[in-house]
Every structure is written in C-alpha cells, then in structure tokens.
C-alpha cells in the first residue's frame, strides 16, 4: 500500500483509484505518516525548510475552528 | 494519471466536500507555501498565520478553481496576495518594485516562533543531512529516478523515456527510493504519528 501512497502524492493513480487510496491512507496513521514523510523528503531535496511536525495539523485545526466551508462565489484572490 | 495537473482528482474530491482530499493537499503543499510566504514576511508567526489564511481562503474558494492552471499555481497566487496584505498591514512595510519579494538568505524556518528558531534550525539541518546521507547510500538507479522527479521536476512519463524503462518501473523506483530514505529519517523525526496529519 505504501507504493500507492507514493503514487497518490505524485498524482500518478488513475482517477478511479484515488478515492480508495485516499480513504485507506487517511484511515491509517502509518500510511498518513508515510504520505507526510515522502512529501518532506521531496521538499528537503529541493532545499525547502521544514516547519515543525504539527504545522499542517494547526492549519486543519484553524479551518475547523473557523468553520471554513466551500463558498460558491467566493474568490480567494480578491480582497474581502 | 496526470503529470501536468497532478492534483486534479484530489481537487475534484475536495470540491465534492471530501475534507480528507483537501487535507492531503494541505500536507503536500504546506512547506512550499510557507517558503513562498516567507519571501515576503519576516516573522515566523506572520508566516504561519499567512499560510493558514492561504489554505482557508483556498478552501472557501475551491468552487472557483476551474483547473485552468495547476492547483499549486493557484495556491501560490493566493499565498502571494495574502502575504502582501499582511505586509501592508505592518507599520513600516516596504514593497520592492511590483510587490516583488526579497529572497531570504538567512536560515529562517517558517512555522516556529522566533524563540524556537535555533532548535528548529538544528532539526531542519538534521533532516537535510539525513536525506543527503541516505541519498548517497541509495542504489544509483533509484536515486536517479527520485532526483529527476523531485529536483528536476520531470514528469514520470519523461523519466521513463529518458531512462528507457517502463513507467511502472519509474513508479517502483521512486517509491523504493522514498522508502529507503524514510526509514533513515524516522529516528530523526521521532514517533509523531497522528500529529503530522
């Protein structure tokens, strides 16, 4: 399954496979870890600095806290 | 499979309210967005705030994303707008030229408070060092495939043509290279499962 995680990260899965791979990855802490570490390796190779481990978790927490929803008509490139 | 717009299916799922798909995009692009924003903003707290705002605005505006550009291109444009707005709110902001960011030359690490910088800089250096050491020990054919993809930004299909191998072999080599490096990174990163994503 880890190879599927690698291909999911790179957008290499067939459209029909993505949903199942995502579900399996999201449900398994070990696979989520793999997805994160594979991404971190790529960024390290490109010289991107590495924020702390909980960086993405804080983004997702704030989204939940603020009740972020998809808003039809909202243009993220425009000032509010 | 899609090399020119690799996130098309994750974006489609996220647009259909699959939050996990958007989470996967956040995990994938958090560091690149942080690096982009850090070209504009100096304080680690401001960078993190701007990164969070970028992803929140992207999520709210996901219905507006039509896939005319790659998802990360759209994300970068949002990030730049957010960073510039942050900058303009600061008392003595200076924008160069057409809002051009200055490339940072210090060892700034986005995502940590300024007081945590030395520790985070050390860990980041350990990660970079571990990755480079693992790369040096990696089978050359695996390292070549990984570097062509991650550093040279070559699509899988082009790597297959360049190396004269089937695309399935490219997938396997990139995966095996990542696994080899990941196993050596784990002791540096520590047991953080459920914390990173």
Written overview of the protein:
The complex is a heterodimer of chains A (80) and B (197). Chain A is built from four helices and no strands. With 80 residues, chain A is mostly helical. Chain A has a single domain, classed as Arc Repressor Mutant, subunit A. The mean pLDDT of chain A is 90. Chain B is mostly helical and 197 residues long. Chain B has two domains: 108 residues, Rna Polymerase Sigma Factor, Chain: A (Orthogonal Bundle); 86 residues, Winged helix-like DNA-binding domain superfamily/Winged helix DNA-binding domain (Arc Repressor Mutant, subunit A). In chain B, 64% of the residues lie in helices and 0% in strands. Chain B is built from eight helices and no strands. The radius of gyration of chain B is 19 Å and the shape is globular. Chain B starts with 7 loop residues before the first helix and ends in an 8-residue tail after the last helix. About 3% of the residues of chain B have low confidence. At the A-B interface, helix 1, helix 2, helix 3 and helix 4 of A face helix 1, helix 2, helix 3, helix 4 and helix 5 of B.
């Amino acid at each position: 399954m880890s190879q599927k995680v690698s291909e999911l990260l790179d957008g290499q899965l067939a459209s029909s496979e993505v949903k199942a791979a995502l579900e399996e990855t999201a449900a398994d802490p070990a696979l989520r870890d793999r997805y994160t570490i594979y991404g971190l390796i790529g960024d390290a190779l490109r010289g991107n600095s590495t924020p702390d481990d909980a960086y993405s978790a804080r983004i997702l927490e704030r989204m939940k806290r603020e009740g972020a929803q998809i808003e039809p008509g909202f243009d993220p490139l425009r000032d509010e | 499979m899609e090399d020119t717009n690799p996130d098309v299916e994750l974006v489609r799922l996220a647009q259909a309210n699959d939050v996990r798909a958007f989470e996967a995009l956040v995990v994938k692009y958090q560091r690149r967005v942080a690096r982009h924003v850090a070209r504009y903003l100096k304080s680690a707290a401001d960078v993190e705030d701007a990164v969070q705002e970028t992803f929140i605005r992207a999520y709210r505006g996901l219905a507006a994303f039509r896939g005319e550009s790659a998802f990360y291109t759209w994300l970068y444009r949002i990030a730049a707008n957010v960073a510039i707005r942050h900058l303009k709110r600061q008392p003595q902001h200076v924008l160069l030229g057409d809002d051009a960011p200055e490339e940072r030359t210090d060892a700034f690490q986005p995502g940590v408070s300024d007081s945590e910088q030395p520790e985070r800089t050390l860990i980041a250096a350990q990660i970079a060092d571990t990755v480079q050491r693992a790369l040096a020990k990696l089978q050359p054919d695996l390292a070549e495939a990984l570097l062509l993809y991650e550093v040279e930004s070559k699509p899988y299909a082009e790597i297959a043509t360049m190396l004269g191998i089937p695309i399935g072999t490219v997938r396997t080599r990139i995966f095996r290279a990542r696994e080899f490096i990941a196993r050596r990174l784990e002791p540096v990163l520590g047991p953080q499962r459920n914390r990173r994503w």
